[in-house]
């Protein structure tokens, strides 16, 4: 009985499996060997790694050391341009160029003034004529130097005037009092202009041998007017007034002292100076 039951279950399971296989066979269109051929495309990607380009070789060069001599030039215009190119401040440039220019023109002046030997045979008139020629050459040399400084620095400046202004003597102390209300650049320019106009007046008197004729006076007056106009351009109105008062105080100011029985306040002193300047 049990054997019969087992056989029946086995047959039932076989039937179920057979039905399932038939259903699968129909849904897939038959066996793989008997249906449409399937094609499988396999795409293979090859990743190629390109090596990075080698860095360019770095060439290390040692720059030559800097020397001031590389900026120097016998041509003063090029010399000034070289100094400005490396950022040299104008005041430092002035302090470099002015002494060098002064030295050059001093050497040229010595060539003019050196004597040509014993000239005992010359008459007084001949010696005077030669002296006048020498003075004329020195004057022309001075004007050439001024023109060069003006071209290089854009203003009139005198190395000799600046040396006097920077000295430690009594004259320098007086100048500091006189021009102390201005900044350094203004005082340098003002004193230079004063010295140059004074030199111009001396040159005029030398050329006329100290004998001023009526036609010479307008030339002296023109120098004075030029100096006053240069002061007016370099100073504001209140600064120019301050300069007038200080000049009036210094000129003859030794009389306004306690030793002379004068005891004035600051306001009174300024009024006295104003009256002196106006008269």
Short description:
The chain has 279 residues and is mainly alpha-helical.
Percent range for helical residues? 55-70%
Structural class by secondary-structure content? mainly alpha
From the N-terminal CA to the C-terminal CA, the straight-line distance is 164 Å
Assign an overall shape: flat
Question: What would you report as the Rg, rounded to the nearest angstrom?
Answer: 52 Å
Q: Tally of extended strands?
A: 0
Give the percentage of residues in beta strands: under 5%
Q: In DSSP terms, counting alpha (H) and pi (I) runs of 4 or more, how many helices?
A: 10
Mean pLDDT: 77
Largest sheet: none
Order of helices and strands: HHHHHHHHHH
pLDDT under 50 segments (min length 5)?
1-6, 31-38
Q: How do the strands and helices of this protein lay out in sequence?
A:
Elements: H1 2-27, H2 76-85, H3 90-113, H4 124-153, H5 159-166, H6 170-179, H7 184-207, H8 217-234, H9 237-250, H10 266-278
Helix pairs in contact: 3-4, 7-8, 9-10
Describe the structure.
The protein is 63% helix and 0% strand. With 279 residues, the protein is mainly α. α7 packs antiparallel against α8 (217-234). Mean pLDDT is 77; it is low at 1-6 and 31-38.
